[in-house]
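Holo model, adenosine-5'-diphosphate. Inputs:
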Amino acid sequence: MEDRKQWPHHRGSVFAKLVAIMFALAVCLLLMVAGFFWLIISPNFSFSVDRLAREYAAAIAVTAPDRQTAIEIRNRLDVPIRYEGPGGNWATDNNLPSITEVRAGSVHRSPHGRDYYLVPAPNGGTYLFAWNLIQPMRKVHLRLLALLLFLMLAVLLSAHAVLKLLLRPVRWLGEGVEQLGSGQLDIVLPVRTRDEFGALTDAFNRMVRRVREMIQARDQLLLDVSHELRSPLTRMKVALELLPEGESKEELATDIGEMELMVAELLELERLRDGRGLNPSFQDLAPILREMAVRFNKKRPGVRLIAPSQKIELNIDEDKIRTVLRNLLENAFKYSLPDSRPIEISCAQNEDSVIVRVSDDGPGIPAEDSAGLFEPFFRVDRSRSKKTGGYGLGLSICKRIMEAHGGDIVFQNNPVRGTSFILTFPIPPSKMGTALPEPSLDSKRSPVLLSGMHD
Ligand code: ADP
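Output:
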């Protein structure tokens, strides 16, 4: 089956990489700002403030404030003050260390981040000032950091949104290439920008148009050649009748027969284009499957049909569906190996479609050939051998017939050996809800089982 890869949305995508780059840039910027503050601004600022505080403490000490004045200063500037000396021992706060402790160097800073300054008093005593300089600065730094983090998050979110919008054409292009790869040729991608992406999308649209025109020209050429070949072929057949009997006459008759078949298949392919050339009616698919299985079961390695015994009513062109099954079964027999198990036809149903599977035990189809398998004149073995000789038109006719029915055909290599062709028929809305039982060999509903009737 043509494996449709999922277009990657996040993992490993350019989009994710760009967002990661933006994130890394934002983190670097944040580290730079923080480093600048911690290493340059903060030490210089602390040094100046420290000098100022010392000078200011000295200026206050010169005025020899008593306890009452000290309390006023403390309330105004948030600077607890202690005095020890001839004027007595007092402190504006209880939790201040003694001047002896600070002088001994056992404490430099209070638990609240206050720095202690010892200043001599005019009367021979000593004042202790506890300036709170670090904490407000830390608060400001933390606020700045929070603001920066918030800005970084906002920038990242907006970058995410902008990048998503900017990279939309890349996502559309990816989806367009996927669709083109799966054979869809009527794609026109929207060109919304005039930048490089716009130019790329425009070039993609032109390329798709060109491919479509080339394929149309090829189909038209095939059709014209097939039409033109019909008259010479008829004349050759008439001329052949007049030739004397002999080996060369037989060979010529075979060659003309092959050419006639090819021309007929090519014309049939064209007739089926765009869903034309069908005569659909409500038919039971089960008897058609049974009939084809019986017809092909006479040859080695035989056919095994696993289908539910009840009706499978679908809106189909009976003859065309027989053609599909015949082509698939002929291929399955052609490519079966001497030790191959019987070819299996099975039928199942899901919510909105009936699925028929024709599975063989042959060599399988190389994965690299999956893209062209349903194209006209495609052959895995490019050199035509007499045993497997065909024109590579069978599967393209099957594809056209299934698409004309609103269904599809895909192939899948079996896990061990061989290939399965899977036909999907849409269930008409009026017949929905009549689910078929899952076919299985030991089903109590006794599916039709047919095998081993070959000689
Ligand atoms: P042809 O007339 O050559 O059989 P088809 O369109 O039916 O043309 O098939 C195209 C090619 O696909 C074949 O030439 C063959 O190489 C490959 N093929 C088809 N069916 C099978 C199968 N069941 N097992 C292996 N290869 C297959």
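The chain is about 50% helix and 15% strand. Residues 14-62 form the longest helix (49 residues).
Archived with the compound record.
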